[in-house]
Every structure is written in C-alpha cells, then in structure tokens.
Amino acid sequence: MKYSSLTLVFLILICGCKPSEQLVEKKESKQDVINFLFQDYIGEKPSASFVVIKDGNIKECQSFGYADLENKILATCETNYRLASVTKQFTAMGILVLIHQGKLTYNTKLTEVIPEFSEYGKDITIKNLLSHRSGLRAYDKLYTEEGEKQLVDKDVLNLLIAQDSLLFPANSKYQYSNSGYAVLAMIIERVSGKTFKEFMDKEIFEKTGMANSTIYLKGVPIKNRAYGYKFNDSIYENKDQSTWSAIQGDGGVYSSVSDYVHWDKSLYDETLVKTDLRNDAFSSWDEHGKTDGKGYGFGWQIDIKNDRKYLMHGGSTTGFLNYSLRIPSEKITVAIFTNTQDYGGLGRKAYFLASYFSDGKIPIPADILLDKDIEDNGIENITNKFSQLKSDPTKFDIVEKDLVSLGFSYLKKEPEKTLKVFELVKTNFPNYFGGYFGLAQYYRTSGNNEMAVEYFKKVTEMATSDDQRQIDYANKMIEQLSQ
Asked: Is the pLDDT confidence value at 87 over 90?
C-alpha cells in the first residue's frame, strides 16, 4: 500500500509512532485531506473553489458549496468570484503594460498624468503608488460605509483631490493603500484613453486567455457569477455589495480559478511584459529602491523562507475572501476563491496545498496538522504532538500567529481547546505577545476579568510598535475590565 508524504504525517501523528514503526491501517486519502481543509464550505453553504498548478499543469481543481444560494447554483472551477485585493496584481500589471509600451515610467509623477490633482501630490510617483508608499489617505476614512452612494474610482480620486496633505511624505514609508490602486486605475484610463474595464479586457484578459474574467461594472452581467454571503444567526444572507465594492482598481476583478491558470502561465513568460518588468513586480521596494528581502512588490506581498521566494496576496471585501500563492522556484501556484468572509485561514490552506503537491520540498503548516489531529484524537496530547512538529523545522512550518488563529477558531464552540492552544503558545513562545492576547480574550469571554486584565497587561509589555492595534485594544480592555 502506497502512502503520500502528507498521509504519512497524519498517520504518524494519529498513532504516535515513529516513521519506522508499523503504521495503523487508517488511511487518509487525498480527498479526505481536501475535505478537511474545506469542511466549512461543504453542504448548503457559500462556496470555495481552489486550483493547484504545478509545472504549468492543473494538479487539482475542486469546488464546494453554492455560488448562488437563492437559485441553488453549485460552484464550479469556472465560477467567477469578486477577487477583492487579489485584483491588485492585475492592476499593477496594467501599469507595467503601459510602461512596457513607453507611455509611463516608474518616475512619472501623479500630477503629470492628472494635472488637476492637488499640489500635495506632486512628489508621488507611479512606483510609490504601486508599492504602497504614496502616503495617500484611505478612502474608507474619507467616506464612510454609511454614505449615500456607492463609490467608484473617480469618486475616490475626487475625495483625494479635496484633501490638502498626505499621511506622510511620499516614499518615506510603506502603508497599504486601497486609495493608491484606485488612483492607478484612473491613471490607466487617462494614459490609455480607454475605460479601466476596456483596457483590462483587451490588454490583460484577452492576451492571457482569461476569457471569462472581467472588471465589475454595475448593471453589466457577469458570467458564472458568485454572489457574496454573510452568516446571520442561523441563515446565510446575500451580502454582495457595499459602499466601496464598485471601486475597480483595488478590488474589481471577477475571475475563476480556471482562468487563474492562464494568468499564472503568463507570469512565467513575456506574454504581457518583458522579464525585467515582471521581475520588478516580484521584488520588494523600500525608500532606496528594489531589494531582495521581504516586503511588497507591485501587487504582490513577498516573503522569503529557506532561500525560497513566496509571492502571495489576500483579498477581502463584502461577501468574498480570497488568496493566491505562487512559489516560482517550485513552479507551484495555489488560488482559493470564496464567496463568504465568515471563514478565514485561506493563506494557510494555500500553503498546505502547496506543500502537499511539492513532493516534500515545501514545509507543511504545523497549525493545520495540529487542527487535524485535535479533530481526530482530541486536545489532551497537544503538547507532545507539537513537540513532534517542532523537532523538525525543515518539514513543518511553525508560525506563531497562525497557532493563535487556531486557538481563536475554537473560542465560540469549544473554549476548552482554546485554552490549551493558547497555553501551548505562551509556553513555547514566551516572548511573543500572541499567546497572552489569546489567553486574555479567553478569560474575558469566560467572565474571569481578573485573569483577563493580567494577560492584557502582558500584551502591553510584550507587543511592539508593529502591534499597536493590539496594544490599544489591550489598554482599552484593561480600563473597562478594571472598573
């Protein structure tokens, strides 16, 4: 009987034996593993579709749940989801196409393309906008979700023109900016003389063979469209649109995992732009220029692990949550698109699938292995199971924040598991604030305010300036719970 490397991992964890010892007869098939990953989408629920691409070929493509609950239309690999911020890789490529055509440069100033823009924008370059270093204000702070109309990209531009300053000098630091990508869509329109939708249809989707992909435009039908949903007490409610979901440049692409295969192929050749421009998109940028480290490129978040580059991007908007992951050195890509925000963890699912199909080259996310073993065998032996994983960091990818997310996933329904996971994080990573934050929330929800305050105080001691949001929350909770 032949077992995959991942099946062996599950079996070793389940029986607690060494690889050389006799394995139990229980066999986790590939479909068992996939069903476990996507169990939240199985049944009469909103959908998830995923694709795994290896060496240019589809290794696996499956869908679960419904693209349209009202009309009982099941999702397929051809279902078109709103990609939210996964759109940014397409918008960035649109700009690179214009640079390739000689119509823009990285150093073109915003005010050169849009001369009516306020004086404060004179130092913002195309490169600053692509790499989230523009300093532009967030449109959701300038126009709230309760606004009277649904915004489009031109409205975002006008909101920004009405401002008199930046959040910080252009190129002085990184701050993720949806506003910047809405402005990039308007730049594409000004330079190309086409609407953003027309340009993307012609220059990106047609040239890559993404025949069923498009840009959202209110009132224009979308083939094989998934509708967004949100769980409300006992039912899923259609929650497809918001004040900001008609903005195109930062989140307006509708596409399928099947079409994403064509997109991925174009990122290995010169279908759209020359190799040097494509490589610029896959490199991080700081105030000095291109770097080899972690950071943000042009529409891609970049991580480096074991001398291997990971290109990824998530997308979240009303009714949709998505994730794309590319590991060019291994020629592996995973895309997961869903039509509900009620379930998270798509990034770890993508990493897990990449590992599954990498022939052992990509480390396996430890938090998902723990989750699977807890489901099968309970929580009591979690310490020993974690020790097994921690003993071989080349095979298992242990990320502290993902262990914290695992703990929170049990909080509402199985709080006793939550406590065990957070205690594990605190013990194994005593200098990381996440375990203390999780314990504080556990004790707060269980009514033990004294213990909650104790752990929230630890959060303020351990967290850094990068975790300011959690520090502010902890201080707020300390004040409230101490009264």
From this structure: yes
Pair of tokens at residue 217: 């435009």
| Number of other residues whose CB lies within 10 A of the CB of residue 390 | 12
Question: Residue 467 sits in a domain of what CATH number?
Answer: 1.25.40.10
Q: What is residue 12's predicted lDDT score, i.e. its pLDDT? A: 40
Residues 246 and 304 in one domain: yes
Domain around 372: 1-37+363-398
Other Cβ atoms within 10 Å of 250 Cβ, number? 25
b/e sequence 171-206, b meaning 16+ C-beta within 10 Å: beebeebbbbbbbbbbbbbebbeeebbebbbebbbe
Q: Which residues contact 141 (CB under 8 A, 6 or more apart)?
A: none
* Claim to verify: residue 324 and residue 432 sit in the same structural domain: no
What Å distances lie between residue 365 and 14, 140, 397, 432, CA to CA?
A: 17, 34, 5, 19
Residues 319 and 424 in one domain: no
With bands split at pLDDT 50, 70 and 90, how would you rate the model's confidence at 18? very low
The predicted pLDDT at position 212 comes to 96
pLDDT tens digits along 453-463 = 999 999 999 99
Question: Please, is 387 exposed, middle or buried when counting C-beta atoms within 10 Å of its C-beta (0-12, 13-18, 19+)?
Answer: exposed
What is the chain's percent helix, strand, coil content, to nearest 5?
45, 15, 40
d(CA 197, CA 218): 12
